[in-house]
Amino acid sequence: MAFDNIDDACQRHRLVRVRLSQRDLENVMRMCVNPCLACGACCAFYRASFYWMEADVFTPGGAPEELTQKLNDFRLVMKGTNGSVPRCIALNGIVGRQVTCSIYERRSSVCRDFEPSWQNNSCNPDCDKARRAWGLEPMTPEFWFDDWNFPQAA
């Protein structure tokens, strides 16, 4: 059965249509997606350095070498993260609003291993520190829902 508009559909199915303020809508949306997609603070606060063998010229599917620079004889660093105002070259979007990682499936171990606060029921002080530096409140357990398959993170 097709409906001409959402009000008809709500009435037919005995649903209550709720009008939310912009702030409430943003909070609901935050709960429906991976909270990292509305953050990105870690990608714009810490240096992302990793063992040189993680680059794609040595490991198929590894971090794109053209997005890295040599840190020392053993480590590479993601471009943009080795200065006084770090921001990873692979980070797209606005920190604290909406972000994605352009190389998410190919990101290095330092990024894969960074756990956001409360994702696995424990606080990560490094996550909290990065969020505070960007004027964001630390995450709480309510940011996460059990058994949800979130889309890719920042």
Quick structural summary:
By secondary structure, the chain is α+β, with helices and mostly antiparallel strands. It is built from four helices and five strands; from the N terminus they run H-H-E-E-E-E-E-H-H.
Give your account of this protein's structure.
The chain is an alpha+beta fold and 154 residues long. The chain has one domain (19-143). The chain has four helices and five strands; from the N terminus they run H-H-E-E-E-E-E-H-H. The protein has helices at 6-12, 22-32, 109-112, 125-133; strands at residues 49-51, 68-70, 75-78, 91-94, 98-101. The strands form two sheets. The protein has a three-stranded antiparallel beta sheet with strand order 1-3-2, with no helix packed on it. Strands 4-5 form a two-stranded antiparallel sheet.
Defining key terms:
154 residues; alpha+beta; three-stranded antiparallel β-sheet; two-stranded antiparallel sheet; 20% helix; elongated
Lateral strand order in the biggest sheet: 1-3-2
Report the principal-axis shape: elongated
Structural class: alpha+beta
Overall structural domain count = 1
- Strand tally, please? 5
